């Protein structure tokens, strides 16, 4: 039954102690991850990612003044008593001294240990996995998103590293943030905890993006997670700039920040240098570019996970409420706005190439009899149309203040007030955010139609971006079931209600109002940071919402604040 589990507080040290009896496969790597000394040559640690059944990407970076030839080794045990694969890679400043290797010719579903060597310097040891083939009874995925260095320590990454129920990590984007400077988002918090962004300005150039990635990689929690678990990744907006579309971004000003295409290219180059993801030439499908960044991962006969690219290959420009607010004066005009502006046809989110790949992958999964088809979505797809919070008695009526405004400037100031903006959206039943799937209802219906054509109207969405936990029961515009969704809070990014100044009591009331009055929302929480652990079995699964007690200090505890159970029900998936 869907519901809230008893709250369990687990200290970081207790979790480590508890893992000591979990067997050598768990205990030895955990001890390595707890090591305090990191060789300065490999100060950014190691990472693995983007696996298939016979290969996996291995990553590190070296501190060097010129070209460097780095040796990599892969073994069956952390003692490296028998090296299975090895080789050398030469790196230099042209790739920011990053090292990326496709370790191929590996057995499926196996666990390996890897390290890098430069002269006498040896990197930390990492653990990597290939995808399984054949029968698989269980799969544990940690869903992560929205790691903002300035807002706090990546304690949730540390908790993921030490979670014995996690097999792979799915990161759905906002792996870095582009903001910087004394007025940048989060910098006031950063100054109090010593985590100001580097460089100290908003990142625009290739050098800027490289420096920012380097900073994020030295967080202790990040290093632990990457060394422990193999990463499945997609990007969202902040890897380049806030709210991009194919022709620009909300947080890009050409007059002062130059050409958008050049900035985007710099951000993508740095991402591919600093992340354990396959280069296009390593993909089975040839002729793809880096910007076409989506993947299909098959986990034996149990599950398909397909990630999405929703920013740079097809997305239409976002609708801005301020551009249309003056014309929305009654229920009729609001309905026309929803239908003719937000719901206008041919406002895509994903590219035709991605649609073709996704439909084919879903059809193969259905034909193969895999019980679970999972979508790694950078943003929430659930229908989050804001309820009438004034009528519900949650917010004060803003319309007298709006009617009394004497100038466009005063109206703009009122529109910037989160209380006014949220109440206004609720009065007209408008989507919470137009940058998420709710701002692209035509594209969402296209997505659902695609899944039905493939025989897969039973999707499990694992989503990021919103800085809130979500459990959503999905349906299309005709009311037909479209699957279920679990969304994750930020690793460190704050919930929007708290960040907007509503206060803790009001934020809790807003969460409850969303769950009570949004038909697709089963439960939501914007009060915590953390991750979601999803365990898939043959017929049933469990989503555990894991919150960290703080991101302002490295000392933290974790708690499972809710568990939701789900199951197969013929051609559908539903909450149990």
Structure description:
- This protein is an alpha+beta fold and 576 residues long.
- It has a domain at 132-387 and 429-575: Alkaline phosphatase D (PhoD) (Purple Acid Phosphatase, chain A, domain 2), CATH 3.60.21.70.
- It is built from 16 helices and 25 strands.
- The strands form four sheets. Strands 1, 2, 3, 6, 10, 11, 12, 22, 23, 24 and 25 form an eleven-stranded mixed beta sheet that branches. The protein has a seven-stranded mixed beta sheet with strand order 15-16-17-18-20-19-21.
- α3 links the parallel β10 and β11.
- α5 runs parallel beside α8 and α10 (352-368) runs parallel beside α14.
- The longest helix is centred in the middle third of the chain and has 17 residues, at 352-368.
- The radius of gyration is 23 Å and the shape is globular.
- The termini are close together.
- Mean pLDDT is 93; it is low at 1-36.
- This is Alkaline phosphatase.
- Residues 142-545 form the PhoD-like phosphatase metallophosphatase domain.
The level 1 CATH classification of one domain is: Alpha Beta
Shape: globular
* Overall mean pLDDT: 93
Instruction: Estimate the helix proportion, in percent.
Output: 25-40%
Q: What amount of the residues lies in strands?
A: 15-25%
Unreliable sequence segments: 1-36
Count of DSSP-assigned helices: 16
Q: What is the number of E strands? A: 25
Distance from first to last alpha carbon: 5 Å
- Give the CATH topology of one domain: Purple Acid Phosphatase, chain A, domain 2
Structural class: alpha+beta
Based on CA atoms alone, the radius of gyration comes out at 23 Å
Q: What CATH architecture label of one domain applies?
A: 4-Layer Sandwich
CATH homology superfamily of one domain: Alkaline phosphatase D (PhoD)
Q: Largest sheet at a glance? A: 11 strands, mixed
Protein name: Alkaline phosphatase
Organism: Novosphingobium silvae
InterPro entries: Metallo-depent_PP-like, PhoD-like_MPP, PhoD-like_sf, PhoD_N, Phospholipid_Metab_Enz, TAT_signal
Keywords: Signal
């Amino acid at each position: 039954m869907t519901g809230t589990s008893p709250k369990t507080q687990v200290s970081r040290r207790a979790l480590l102690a508890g893992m000591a009896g979990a067997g050598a496969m768990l205990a030895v790597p955990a001890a390595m991850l707890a090591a305090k000394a990191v060789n300065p040559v490999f100060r950014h640690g190691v990472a693995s990612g983007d696996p298939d059944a016979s290969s996996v990407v291995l990553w590190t970076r070296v501190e060097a003044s010129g070209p460097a030839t780095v040796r990599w080794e892969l073994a069956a045990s952390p003692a490296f008593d028998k090296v299975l694969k090895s080789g050398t890679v030469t790196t230099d400043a042209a790739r920011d001294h990053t090292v990326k290797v496709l370790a191929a010719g590996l057995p499926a579903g196996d666990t390996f240990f890897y390290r890098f060597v430069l002269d006498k310097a040896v990197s930390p040891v990492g653990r990597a996995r290939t995808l399984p083939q054949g029968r698989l009874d269980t799969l544990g995925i940690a869903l992560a998103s929205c790691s903002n260095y300035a807002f706090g320590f990546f304690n949730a990454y540390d908790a993921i590293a030490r979670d014995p129920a996690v097999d792979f990590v799915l990161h759905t984007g906002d792996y870095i943030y582009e903001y910087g400077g004394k007025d940048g988002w989060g910098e006031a918090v950063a100054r109090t905890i010593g985590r100001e962004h580097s460089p100290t300005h908003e990142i625009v150039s290739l050098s800027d993006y490289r420096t920012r990635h380097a900073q994020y990689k030295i967080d202790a929690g990040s290093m632990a997670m990457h060394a422990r678990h193999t990463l499945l990744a997609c990007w969202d907006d902040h890897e380049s700039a806030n709210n991009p579309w194919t022709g620009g971004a909300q947080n890009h000003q050409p007059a002062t920040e130059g050409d958008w295409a050049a900035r985007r290219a710099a951000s993508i180059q740095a991402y591919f240098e600093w992340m354990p993801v396959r280069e296009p030439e390593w993909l089975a499908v040839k002729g793809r570019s880096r910007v076409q960044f989506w993947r299909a991962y098959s986990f034996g006969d149990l599950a398909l996970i397909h990630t999405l690219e929703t920013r740079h290959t097809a997305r239409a420009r976002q609708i801005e409420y301020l551009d249309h607010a003056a014309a929305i004066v009654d229920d009729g005009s609001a309905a026309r706005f929803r239908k003719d502006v937000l719901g206008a046809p041919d406002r895509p989110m994903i590219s035709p190439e991605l649609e073709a790949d996704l439909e084919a992958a879903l059809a193969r999964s259905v034909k193969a009899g895999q019980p679970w088809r999972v979508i790694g979505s950078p943003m929430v797809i659930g229908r989050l149309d804001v309820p009438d919070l004034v009528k519900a008695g949650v917010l004060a009526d803003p319309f007298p203040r709006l009617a009394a405004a004497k100038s466009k400037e005063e109206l703009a100031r009122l529109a910037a007030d989160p209380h006014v903006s949220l109440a206004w959206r609720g009065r007209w039943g408008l989507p919470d955010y137009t940058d998420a799937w709710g701002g692209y209802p035509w594209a969402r219906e296209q997505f659902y139609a695609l899944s039905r054509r493939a025989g897969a109207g039973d999707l499990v969405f694992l989503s990021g971006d919103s800085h809130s936990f979500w459990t959503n029961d999905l349906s299309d515009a005709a009311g037909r079931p479209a699957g279920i969704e679990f969304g994750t809070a930020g690793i460190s990014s704050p919930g929007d209600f708290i960040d907007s100044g509503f206060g803790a009591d009001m934020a809790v009331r807003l969460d409850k109002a969303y769950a009570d009055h949004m038909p697709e929302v089963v439960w939501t929480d914007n009060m915590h940071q953390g991750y979601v652990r999803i365990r898939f079995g043959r017929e049933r699964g469990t989503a555990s919402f894991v919150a960290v007690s703080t991101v302002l200090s490295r000392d933290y505890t974790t708690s499972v604040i809710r568990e939701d159970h789900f199951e197969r029900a013929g051609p559908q998936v539903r909450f149990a």
